[in-house]
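Weekend entry, working from home. Most of the wet-lab plans are on hold until the incubator is repaired, so I used the time to fold the two sequences that have been sitting in the queue since the last round of cloning. Logging both here for the record. First:
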Amino acid sequence: MKESMLIKQNYTMGLTGKVMLVSSLLFFLMFLPGMFSFHTVILLSMLLIPVGLIWMVWMVLTDKRDVNADSGDNIPIPR
């Protein structure tokens, strides 16, 4: 049970990291070819920032991990 929770937690963190990495890579790739004008880059970045903020708030709000879950420190001692 705890192993599956750990895997789920690592997957969600990894997913957030992947989204941030891809968005930052796309942002830097837009500067390289010179096809896009500077105003297009600014507009796209202005669109990306609120999307990223909404994503982070959504990840926090939809976090299904139990706050009061047993961390494993207070294991009952068998008598």
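Second, folded right after the first finished:
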Amino acid sequence: MLFISVLLLCFCVLTSCRKEKYGDTGISILIHESETKDGMAVQIPEFRSGNEEVQKRLRELEKQTNMLQKTCEREESRGSHMEMRSYVDEVKNYPQVTVVWFVADKDIQTYNLISLCADEKQGLPVTCKEALEMTGLTGVDLSLRVGRLQKEMKIRGELSSTEMQGFRIDENGKVTEIYMKLIMKVTEGEQTIEEEHFFSYFPDEEKLVRLSERGFDIP
């Protein structure tokens, strides 16, 4: 398995690691903590299992963490200012982590996130697509519901796009939250700009809550 902390040395200096361990399959989440050249935090997760077969089944998560590492390297090569933080959710049966990062280039600052999760009992990864299927919703259903709720919240501007970027699963395997990125087009004088907004959508309660109110450092 690709050892992420070695790759990090190409981008920044590794400072420490922390580990959260779960269940019978021995799945743990290791957070590689480091800093960029300008002192911003970089926290990249890694899912590990002492069971070789389980580790093989977690390769999809490994691909995602490798993507995060490549994002860091790409933005470093461009000279961009960035930060990446991992939020571990200690849920029984479903070890999960949501990674939030932003990239600032000149006057543009862009945020994104991704949720990584494993089914502890099955020793299998859970993707965004699978999490959405677990709710019984389609992508169109989700967009329509979120679009209606954002109108009720009277967020300024016109909704341009919605994107499911993450989720939260409880210990019973129920998807309780879906993390959404909304792009709003806002007209100021003769200029139209795009604003990013991040919300947690609660399927059972039919409500939107800003992710910043859920403990995430995100707009």
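Plan for Monday: verify the second prediction. Residues 1-15 have pLDDT under 50 and may be disordered.
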